[in-house]
Structures are given as C-alpha cells and as structure tokens.
Specification:
globular; 199 residues; alpha/beta; 20% strand
Length: 199
C-alpha cells in the first residue's frame, strides 16, 4: 500500500482538539447490482449489525457510496430515529453523520431494523460492528458479539460475506465464530460462505 497523501490537521495546544480535514473520494458513482459479486464499481446490499458510534457512521458511508444498507440495532429508539432520517449521533460526536443519515433515508438507501435475520437474508455482505469488552480479569467478554452472531444465523445464505469489524483476539474468528456460522447454515467457508475480519 502506498500513502499518496496525508490528511492535513489543525491542532491547538489551548484545550482544542485535532481534526482531520475531509478527504473526498476520487472514484465515480457505483452501479447497483443484485446479487453483488465484488465487481469493481458496483454496490450491493449490506447489513451493518450495530448502529452505535462506529456502526452508524459506517452504515451511512456505505449508503453514501450507493449501497442499500440496513442498519441493525437492538435499541428500538435508535432504529426509529434512523428510519425517520435522524441520526442518534450529533454532529459534535460524529461530524457529517447526521447529514449522511438524512440523505440515506431520503434516497431510500439507508433503513434500520431490530430484525437481524431479516436484514441478513436480503444482504450480500454482513458487517458485525459490536463491542467486545474486557472482564474484570482483563479477558475478552464475548457476550455482545455472541448475541450478534446468534442473531444473524437464521438469515445466512449461499454467497454471503460476513465481516467481523471489531477487536477480536487473534484466531477467535476462525476458532470461535466460523464453525458456528458453518454449523448453523450448512454453508462451507470459502465455498459458499466468505468471512473476513479486521485485526
């Protein structure tokens, strides 16, 4: 990978913060296809599991790039706000996200639900972006991630790509989650089930 440009930053030592300048995309609009097969310049359907401080900005970015996005969250108030075109995150928390949520709702590219299985059933790609916390003994607490994985299992179908976009201990995707995905769906990794993770 080659870094072609570093974002400019302005900072203050007088109690201010550091803020990166927007770095606009340089690609053209994506062409919507069904089913999505990964062809460059195309967009499909994505279910983003977890519409919090990290998940909602990700969902809004996908929608702004032509994807049909279903944000999934267990909090009914968050689902209702997104479906009304309103971001539960303020511009102070996540600059630009309220505008992207409003635009995604207006164009019909962004919606929300509490029904993860239904969202996954209609998706080409699933992104799990829920937290893995630490216990009092500093061990990973998989409670939230386990529940999120369980919620998507009934919706898995051939050709689906599942991305674990959270901090997981090395090897846990392969050892803990892939076998559960395969067992529940009858799909086989790298045949009709594709899995990726962000280390």
């Amino acid at each position: 990978m080659t870094i072609v440009r570093t974002p400019s930053r302005s900072a203050s030592l007088l109690g201010g913060g550091m803020r990166a300048e927007p770095n606009p995309c340089r690609h053209g609009p994506s062409r919507s296809v069904e089913p999505w097969t990964g062809e460059p310049g195309t967009a499909g359907r994505v279910a983003v599991i977890g519409a919090g401080k990290m998940g909602l900005p990700l969902a809004a970015q996908y929608a702004s790039h032509g994807w049909r996005v279903t944000a999934v969250d267990v909090r009914r108030d968050v689902v209702d706000l997104i479906n009304a075109g309103t971001s539960p995150l303020s511009s102070d928390e996540e600059p630009g996200v309220p505008e992207l949520v409003a635009e995604g709702s207006r164009t019909g590219r962004l919606s929300a639900t509490a029904d993860a299985a239904a969202a996954v059933r209609g998706a080409d790609v699933v992104v799990l972006i829920v937290p893995v916390m630490l216990t009092a003994d500093h061990e990973p607490d998989f409670t939230i991630m386990d529940a999120a994985v369980d919620s998507i299992l009934p919706g898995l179908h051939p050709g689906i790509t599942v991305i674990f976009e959270t901090t997981l201990p090395v090897g846990e995707t392969r050892r803990r989650f892939v076998p559960r995905l395969e067992a529940a769906s009858g799909l086989r990794l790298d045949d009709d089930l594709f899995v990726a993770f962000s280390p």
